[in-house]
Amino acid sequence: MKTTLSAIALALLGSTAMAADNGWYVGGDISRTKFEVSGDSVSKTGVGFFGGYRLNENVAFEGTFRRMGTFDCVADDCGAHSISASVIAGAKVADSFTLFGRVGFARNSLDVREGSTTYSEHKSKALIGLGGEFHINKHFGVRGEFVNLGKNKIDGYTFKITQFNLGMTYSF
């Protein structure tokens, strides 16, 4: 009887630990986005918001909105943002640290203002990224990552967009 109770207790404890590794999460970050255009480059600070569902400690699905900043470009000024969906695969390398990679699809938008005229270009691209997350406790984490949002051709110019993001996560 004691053996049966011990086995049930261990099974319940194990399932509780596993429950902490899945579920919904949200977060925000500050990004440093680098835009490379025709050999020139500019870096701008932006913000991002994301939310996702962690299937287990190794796989998650995530949606993201990023405002990548405003900068001088071939026109008066340009602004960029991106909406993306990704699959994230991770591996715990320590009790409180996970390395992860992401692959996904981004809808990148560039808003260009020339004088009193504003127009927008939208391009859909694959994205890829690598990062790590330090788990402060069951609910909070700090993560950093590098993301390549691809090359976007607009009016004969090729924009290459890469980011470094540093942010916080909250798991429910």
Description:
This protein is mainly beta and 172 residues long. The chain has a single domain (24-171), classed as Porin. The protein has 1 helix and 8 strands, in the order H-E-E-E-E-E-E-E-E. A hairpin with a 2-residue loop joins strand 5 (97-114) and strand 6.
Query: Can you give the helix content as a percent range?
Result: 10-25%
Helix and strand pattern: HEEEEEEEE
- Provide the number of structural domains: 1
Largest sheet: 8 strands, antiparallel, barrel
| Beta content | over 45%
Q: Judging by the overall fold, what is the CATH architecture? A: Beta Barrel
How many strand units?
Answer: 8
Low-confidence stretches: 4-20
- Please give the CATH class: Mainly Beta
Structural class by sheet pairing and helices = mainly beta
List key phrases describing it:
Beta-barrel_OMP; 8 strands; Porin; 172 residues; 1 helix; signal; eight-stranded antiparallel barrel; mainly beta; OMP/PagP_B-barrel
Helix and strand arrangement:
Elements: H1 2-19, E1 23-37, E2 40-54, E3 59-71, E4 77-94, E5 97-114, E6 117-135, E7 140-154, E8 157-171
